[in-house]
Amino acid sequence: PVDAAPDAPVADAAPDAPVVDAAPDAADAAPAADAGPLMCTYVAVTAVGPVGLSYSFSGGTSRSFGCAPIDPTYWMSGSGMSVTVTFTAPEARPSFRVWGMNTDDTASVKVNGVAYPLDAASASFSSKVVCGLSPGPDGVAFVGGVLAGANTPAQGNYSYQDVTLETTGVTSITVTGLTGAGWGFAGVSHDCR
């Protein structure tokens, strides 16, 4: 088969590489005003050094549970565990990466210290990347304003997805676990251009 856009950026699932979205039609095509970012910098929770943001953790732990491309992640279970990301400059449309959420796992989000209910207008999520058993088209869903897994615990969900916050002027994001047996917070994409 012939590649119609051989120079178009290609998504890279590696956790330490920038997250790249393909251009709409060809490598030199200009994106529409609302087409979204073409490139962001992904920063794993394990990153050290100056990266344009900092992480603070409460209650969870760094764990590896079998998703090799992104292990270890910051593992949260039950209620009250959280991660806060503080950016060194205001961000437009940052995203965070989660993995392993089942229907019993839920999490709330705050932006700049204020509750940020998730729905189709306020946020979006990328296609899931499978790293084990994960039936169905999605690994996460927006349910009643919170983030939840889309597969039952019996089905399993060895996949990860990026959740993009459709807002600007973001100086901090706090993701707090509300319920569930556990899921991983892997990192954040920011500095989108």
User: Biggest sheet, open or closed, and with what strands and sense?
Assistant: 9 strands, antiparallel
**Low-pLDDT ranges:** 1-34
Report the helical percentage: under 10%
Averaged pLDDT:
82
**Rounded Rg:** 16 Å
Structural class: mainly beta
**What share of the residues does DSSP label as strand, in percent?**
35-45%
Shape: globular
**Total number of helices:** 0
A few lines on this structure:
This protein is mainly β and 193 residues long. It has no helices and 16 strands.
Report on this model:
The protein has 193 residues and is mainly β. The chain is built from no helices and 16 strands. It has strands at residues 19-20, 39-44, 53-58, 61-63, 73-76, 82-91, 95-99, 106-111, 114-115, 123-125, 129-130, 140-143, 146-149, 159-165, 170-179, 183-190. The strands form two sheets. Strands 1, 2, 4, 5, 7, 10, 11, 14 and 16 form a nine-stranded antiparallel beta sheet that branches. Strands 3, 6, 8, 9, 12, 13 and 15 form a seven-stranded antiparallel beta sheet that branches. β8 (106-111) and β9 form a beta hairpin. The protein is globular.
